[in-house]
Amino acid sequence: MTDEIAASYAHCRRIARRSASSFYYSFLLLPKPKRQAMCALYAFLRRTDDLGDSPAPAAERREALVDWRQALVECQAGLYADPILPALAHTLRTFSIPLEYLHAVIDGIETDLKPVAYESFSQLEEYCYRVASVVGLACLRIWGSIHPSAERPARQCGIAFQLTNILRDLGEDAARGRVYLPREDMDRFAYRAEELKAGVHDERFRALMRFEIERA
């Protein structure tokens, strides 16, 4: 490992320790190479999420994500536009993590730059796959659980986690123009996106929540 890569891992570790709450302490249970890799993966995800959720106008955030995607591609050739990237590139090589997983994360974050509305659960499921399931699939590579039978549970776990996050943040997201609940589900319970934004929590809303919680 070069000094540049070692310094990059140290930088990623500081990011994870500063911002990952209990996640960071779970990383400490892993052998050092895997612990370092988890910090590098976390640092990439943290940076991507921060670029998407910054207070800058949507057009600037979109441009920043385009630049970040290009930096991700270039780091595979040894060109590092950010101190996170030497460690990330080393992690991707060492654990054979497909680059498409990280591109999928950026794809998912980009969808949040405009008002969000989903017609069907299959559309929402694809979003959950991009921002959550691919993270689990990448983690499997680091942890060594590479048997194909592990992939479907990892996908489903990511979807369940992300759906739980969505249900937790319904009001906050609705205020930002993001209604993740599928229209087909709201129609099932005769509940409207406008009522969600207005904070209507009647029996229809509670029935809808029971349905979504059971799904998760």
What features would you describe in this structure?
- The protein has 216 residues and is an all-alpha fold.
- The chain is built from twelve helices and two strands.
- It has a two-stranded parallel sheet with strand order 1-2.
- Helix 1 packs across helix 5.
- The longest helix has 23 residues.
- The chain is globular, with a radius of gyration of 19 Å.
- The model has no long low-confidence stretch (mean pLDDT 92).
Write the topology of this structure.
Layout: H1 3-19, H2 22-27, H3 32-53, H4 58-75, H5 85-94, H6 99-111, E1 116-117, H7 121-143, H8 151-168, H9 170-175, E2 178-179, H10 183-188, H11 193-197, H12 203-215
Parallel strand pairs: 1-2
Which structural class fits the helix and strand makeup? mainly alpha
Rg, please? Answer: 19 Å
Gross morphology is globular
Helix content: over 70%
What strand line-up does the widest sheet have?
A: 1-2
Give the N-to-C terminal Cα separation: 42 Å
Give a quick account of the main beta sheet: strands, pairing sense, barrel closure: 2 strands, parallel
Order of secondary-structure elements: HHHHHHEHHHEHHH
**Strand content range:** under 5%
Tally of separate helices: 12
Average pLDDT taken over every residue:
92
- Unreliable spans are none
Number of strands: 2
Write a concise synopsis of the structure shown.
The chain is mainly alpha-helical. 73% of the residues lie in helices and 2% in strands. The longest helix is centred in the middle third of the chain and has 23 residues, at 121-143.
